[in-house]
Amino acid sequence: MKIQRKLHSGQARAWRSDARFVFIIAGTGGGKTYFGPLWLHREIERHPEGSFLVIAPTYGILQRVVYPELKKLVDTFYPGALYKAIERTCYLPTGGRIFFGSADRPLTLEGAHCRAVWMDEAGQMRREAWDVALRRVGFHKGRVLGTTTPYNLGWLKVEVYDRWKAGDKDYEVVQFPSVLNPAYPREEFERARQTLPGWKFKMFYLGQFTRPQGLVYQDFDPAEHIVEPFEIPKDWRRVAGIDLGYNNPTAVVWLAFSNDDVAYAYREYYQRNRLPGEIAREVAEAEAVDAAYCDPSSPEAIEELRRAGVPAMPAENAVKPGIESVISRLRSRRLFVFRGLYNLLDEIENYRWKEQNEQLKDEPVKEYDHAVDALRYAIASTDKDVRIELW
């Protein structure tokens, strides 16, 4: 069966792309989610008995937006397809399967080797979802489509957009404003231009990356604070910050302090569903440190770390003073992050202050905060120790 669908120039460019990783990063209403099922249908035609994965940021978005859009296409081209809600799987009459998952539960995305993955609103997802997508298509050297509005300067900017700009042929980014879609109302676009803050209009209506308001670490400049990895001198002090979790990830950030007190975050650990004993063993096996500053709310886990030989102790946990310690080091160029610490860098670019009635509060949002909490524990506790020694 052949059915013609009209694509605007932005969608057409993405359709013609042969890149493995194609991302439409565009304004709201630009036709991103409409394009996803068409692209996936072509991949299914190429591999009719293959497995495919569709990811939404949350289960709610999956149910309300993504699945209904894809169902229209499945009903048209694959009559007889069977969707089993309990399995979140659509069984195609071709012998293929489409799995559905939500990025807020990244471990549920693990499973079959896939021929293609579609990530809708990828910019709302944590980097873990991108890691899963790459693992799922790795065996078959499959393809990934991302459709999204830009929301921050996290992994989507660093891992996709920057690679494309640097000339990596595996990546193609297609950007366009909302009004490239002829169905999007021009008057609404102009209303947004006149009433929204500049940064918000650029992101949500032009599809352009810019730094959003309210970031906790707005002093962090990737061009300045991200450095290429180097061999850490043996006489530098090494410490670890540890934020413990189970369903939420356990995050560990290792820092080395030079003899003139410049800190380098050079290693990270970011794992879910690890028991305290497993975490203790894995951290102990990673490398020896002079001190490990831990989330003080988990004394049993701290004791487990000590039994494994890790010099663990409760961290300084006052949030705002700890954040101020990190900001002070960023502003004075005494804190740098090795390139490749993807989870920490992603969280730094997402960590923001709470907002109420369009006013920022002196309290950070409790999400995207595991690696940045580990960083804060290490910096605040080390700086306190240094001040005590100096006094």
Query: In DSSP terms, counting alpha (H) and pi (I) runs of 4 or more, how many helices?
Result: 13
Structural class, by secondary structure, is alpha/beta
Q: What letter string, H or E per element, gives the SSE order?
A: HEHEHEEEEHEHEHHHEEEEHEHEHEHEEH
The proportion of residues forming helix, as a percent range, comes to 25-40%
* Form type: globular
| Strands in their spatial order, largest beta sheet | 3-4-5-2-6-7-1-8
Question: How would you characterize the largest beta sheet?
Answer: 8 strands, mixed
Low-confidence stretches: 386-391
Could you tell me the mean pLDDT?
Answer: 89
Q: Report strand %.
A: 15-25%
- First-residue to last-residue Cα separation: 80 Å
Count of extended strands: 17
List keywords for this structure.
391 residues, alpha/beta, eight-stranded mixed beta sheet, 23% strand, disordered C terminus
Characterise this structure:
There is one protein chain. This protein has 391 residues and is α/β, with parallel strands linked by helices. Helices cover 38% and strands 23% of the residues. The chain has 13 helices and 17 strands. The protein has helices at residues 9-16, 32-46, 59-77, 127-138, 155-165, 186-195, 198-206, 222-225, 276-286, 299-307, 319-331, 342-348, 370-390; strands spanning 21-26, 51-56, 82-84, 89-91, 97-102, 116-120, 143-148, 171-176, 226-227, 237-243, 250-257, 263-271, 291-294, 312-314, 335-338, 353-356, 359-364. An eight-stranded mixed β-sheet has the order 3-4-5-2-6-7-1-8, sandwiched between helices. A seven-stranded mixed β-sheet has the order 9-15-12-11-10-13-14. It is globular and about 70 Å long. Mean pLDDT is 89; it is low at 386-391.
